[in-house]
Amino acid sequence: MTGEDGARQFLLHGKAMRQKIDQETMRRTYAVDNRRVIPLGFFVEGFEYKILGLVPSNTHLFGPKDPDDVVYFFGADRLGRDVLSRIISGTKISMSIGLIGVAVSLVIGVTLGGLSGYYGGWVDNVIQRLIEFLRSIPTIPLWMGLAAAIPLGWPPLRTYFVVTLIVSMIGWTSLAREVRGKFLALRGEDFITAARLDGLTDWEIIRKHMVPSFSSHIIASLTLAVPLMILAETSLSFLGIGLQPPIISWGTLLKEAQNIRSIIEAPWLLIAPGTMIVIAVLALNFLGDGLRDAADPHAH
Predict the structure, then answer these.
(1) C or N: which end of the chain has fewer Cβ atoms within 10 Å?
(2) Closest CA to 85 of 293, 289, 272
(3) Cα–Cα distance measured from residue 279 to residue 87, given in angstroms and rounded to the nearest whole number
(4) Residue 289: which CATH number?
């Protein structure tokens, strides 16, 4: 081993891959090409882009030192597209659907749950029967039926917002039940009676006294609901009834690994987006558990 080769072993580098085609089975296989080493480094030059869409630059945090080399850290898909870049782009879509879906569920759940618990009577009966009807419908068939009604010719942005509304259709029911229970417990408290005698309207009592009294519980519940929204979008897109290309999400990335051949020849198509989903769901669940424990004075 020469001195140059020995020093190269201690530098950041990657091995090139060589494609082989079996002439009998016509299967493609990939093997490491030990004859070619690609040096890697931090703050290297590459293709031009704009930081935050404003400042032009060609400096990249990490990559090959030679701008002519191409490195796929998470591999490439069947069309030669970088899986890591697609996962980063898909994270924005999947996470935003979870956050927007939870925001829609928050508005609907707090509004209907608050009306049901505060007024009671026929208002409570109507809202509770509606919740029971929605919860009695199997979730996946309901989503499939709603997603099948989306016209195929719609632009991607409109489809994105419709899918967000679809995954919010069921999420608000559990929050509405919780809000109703809290309102039933609070409407007989002394401070609510004092506020009513003070001349406050029903809307002011709900907005200034009742909702803030258990806002920490709502925040914890919503944090735990975000993973369910993400999994719902992923399931719809994986089944082919949610987001469709050219929109990139974790579900559409998993759709690339639906057949056995892709899993055998390119397992990273399943492992990379699947790992991101697991990490995101676990992180949000841990955050929700922490917020719930912090908001509950009897948790410790």
Answers:
(1) C
(2) 272
(3) 13
(4) 1.10.3720.10
